[in-house]
Structures are given as C-alpha cells and as structure tokens.
User: What shape does this take?
Amino acid sequence: MSLLQLQKLRITLKAYESSVLDRSCIKIADVVKTSSRSKVVGPIPLPTKIRRYCVLTSPHVNKKARNHFEIRTHKRIIDVYKPTDDSFENLKDLDLAAGVDVEVKNF
Assistant: This one.
C-alpha cells in the first residue's frame, strides 16, 4: 500500500508533562501544514489517566503514617487527512522531546 492511498493518519501522543506534550503537538502540526496541503485536525485532548499509589512510611511502628503518590498520563490525538509522501518523510525526521511517546496509525 503506498502512502498516496492513505486517507488518514492518526498520531497519538502520550506524556507525563502536559507542557512538553503541547509543544510537541504544535511542532507536529506545523511540520505537516508546511510540508503539504494536508488537513490537520487537532490536537484533541483525551482524558488524563491518573494512577494513585499509597505507601506505608514505616511498616512496623506507625501503621497510620502513609504517603500518597500519583502519576498523570496526558494524551493527545492529531488526525492528518490525505497525507503526502513529503509530510510522512518530514514526520519521520522530526525531533521531539524525550518524554513524549508517539504512535502513528493509518486508516
């Protein structure tokens, strides 16, 4: 399947810090808009996944003393309609921040 037959690319981004994630989304949208005439929809924010942990501070003496921690995972989706070969090549060459996980799917 060549890239010219693709109708849509869905780019999913995940990160622990929302500011780093937003900067990466802006960078991706700018690269796709400047490289081709593709239509970019997004970034669309998805619900933040919150994982909470409760840890005993001292397991033997103070049973009621506990610390609470949480990890927030922020997600964004960017859709690119009718991508070209140039936009796909520019996306592969793009340098993003270290804390951002990028997943690209085609439809």
Residues 20 and 80 are 21 Å apart (CA to CA). The first strand starts at residue 8 and ends at 15. The first helix runs from residue 18 to 35.
